[in-house]
Amino acid sequence: MTRTIESLVAVLEEIAPLAGAADWDNTGLLLRGMRAITRVGLCIDLTGPVWSELRQCDAIVAYHPPIFRGLKRLDGSTPRQATLLDVIRQGVHVYAPHTALDAAPGAMGDWLLQAFGEPTSFEECRPIQPAAFDPRYGVGRRARLAEPRSLQSLLPRLKSWLGLSAVRCAGDMNALRTSVAVCPGSGGSVLAGLDDVDILLTGELGHHEVLAHVAAGGAVVLTDHTNTERGYLPRYAARIRAACPDVSVVVSAVDSDPLVVV
Predict the structure, then answer these.
(1) CATH number of this structure's domain 102-228
(2) 244-248 long-range CB contacts below 8 Å, 24 or more apart?
(3) Which architecture does CATH list for 5-98+230-251?
(4) Of 74, 116, 205, 231, which residue has the fewest beta carbons closer than 10 angstroms?
(5) What is the reported pTM?
């Protein structure tokens, strides 16, 4: 049995409505291909190696939009353009949820918050920037811990949850903390000014933003950009499978953060 791109898009937008996306973002169906859908591939970044791995898929859900800032030409003169041209030639659909998936309840933002503990570990959990159309939606998550914890005691679960052997930390590791905030990817604009939150977790934060939060008495955990995003893909795949039992859904094994600790 096959599925149309319209029916797949309906499922993806049920999970993460595009109304929740940031106004600067480029989300939704970016490339309409020609294939009926029996196999869907998931990735964070649709790079050349990832495309080589997923080229047998009929549709690719790439979290980061492979078409973002203005494309003035599509002549294959860069690796990104060459990949996009080959995707088009093969008739494969490409969909990007990005900040819509960050904002949706039960999606990436809530998954990232659980790096600090199971849902019962939190009180007063809410988006940092609630969406105007529904306050349950919004970028970032902040919460109070049910009991005070040190960052040092939280790190084993955090690293295990994210599948990392190491993270970068700033601030007092042993002070007892009562509140946390998270933002997938680059959290500077979302986490800025949260001096009343003890621990910030994100992929990237500017040097001076880290200094400011530590000076205010807080702590910061940085993982590099996509390490706050990629771990959600298996759960995302499971949600798509549940809604599309007639479709095979695979997560890229090649997709990885470009930075490694050596």
Answers:
(1) 3.40.1390.30
(2) 244/3, 244/7, 244/8, 244/11, 244/40, 246/1, 246/2, 246/3, 246/38, 247/3, 247/8, 247/37, 247/38, 247/39, 247/40, 248/38, 248/39, 248/40
(3) 3-Layer(aba) Sandwich (3.40)
(4) 74
(5) 0.95
